[in-house]
Amino acid sequence: MSKTENWLKLINPDYLNRGFFNIKPGLSRIKTILSSMNIKRDRPIFQIVGTNGKGSTACIISGLLDNLGYSVGTFMSPHEISPTERILINNRQIKADQLNEIISVVNSAEVSAGIVLSYFELLTAAALYWFKINNVDLIVLEAGMGGRWDASSALGQTVLVVTSIGIDHTDYLGKTAVRIAEEKIAAVSENSKLVIAPQKPDVYRKLTTYARKRTLTAVKYINKKLIKILEGNLFGTNFLYKDMLIKTNLLGEYQPVNIVTAIESVRLLYDLPDDIVKKTAEFLRIPSRLEVKKVNNLTIIFDGGHNQDAIEGVCRFFKKIKKRITVIYSSMKNKDYQSNLCLLSTLSDSLLIIELPFERAEKAVNLLKAAKGLFKYSRILDIAGLGEFVKLKYDSDEIILITGSFYLTGLFKHVING
Predict the structure, then answer these.
(1) Does the structural domain 291-417 have CATH classification 3.40.50.300?
(2) Which residues pair with 90 in a beta bridge?
(3) What is the pLDDT of residues 126-154, one digit of tens each?
């Protein structure tokens, strides 16, 4: 079995028994299943929706609560190599045999109810069941897509956190950022608390207008002007929030915003001392969000950014880095890869294209065509040649940027580490 075939078996193991990209909007199915399993909102739930930053913000909220001494169940998506990455308690992933076991419990509920959940619904139900039987103190849920009909909204929430909203998943959520914002903010429950991260003006107006019409117990708007970045490089980011100096090993000017959003979200429910904030921020590790791996002199950076706003954030970071960069890129068919490649061409004159082994993945020849004229050097690299290509670069003092899809970063890690 090739490394690619092995990775495909790992990311969608047989016990999940359904289509990996099977999307079915709606809450009726998962609400029925959760009710039959006696899963209810009987502990605080932080739900994070948004286009960019929701995974990072979920991780940071979980880290803060963990360091406060709480038992925290966290559900995230997507995964890079194994679905066990999605379900954690205090940053410890569920084991594969444990996930297999709780999937069987959900499957039994499906059979009894005559319902077939989607892939994401199945894992959401499994996560909530895992948190229930482990009696966690509270839950952090990252929405998969949208908000109104996302499975993570099935129980409602205590605090809804809205991170940066842009253009993505337009087939399901709408063609404009404002329309997408409507879908995401619609997840908010009556009498919940709401946190809104900095947004583009038209999106901000839409969110604030919607919030005023709902019965909410608190609304917190994050003021970007109170965040001052002092230093950012390949080793981390130092910034001021109000008068508090925060140092983090996370890269990118957007991460201080995510950290502050997480801080203020937690403070809506709990006392959060500055020393816990600093301790958490300093040791954060979030996979494939400008994640750095050093191999000899070579620097490999993984970033799963796949929409224009995310790629713009990556590019702003690299503008300050004075090293040669080779971009390795792949994309799903429904992404605006033409715009992404235009942005990436401002960083590098060298592009390598990988075709992911999914029907939903864009063909490498189409990506190469879209890159024509943008890069001085561009070609298709077969997945089987990834490992050898990187080995040849081990002694090179340059950067390889892996971006365009979390599935690409996951495949790359598996090929290199496998």
Answers:
(1) no
(2) none
(3) 999 999 999 999 999 999 988 999 999 99
Domain ranges of the chain: 11-282, 291-417
Please indicate, yes or no, whether the overall pTM of this predicted structure exceeds 0.90.
Answer: yes
What is 11-282's CATH superfamily? Mur-like, catalytic domain (3.40.1190.10)
Q: 306 near 404, Cβ under 8 Å?
A: yes
The dihedral of CA 179, 44, 251, 76: what is its sign?
negative
Phi first, then psi, for residue 320 (nearest 5°) are -90, -5
The pair of three-digit structure tokens given for residue 359, joined into one six-digit string: 């029907």
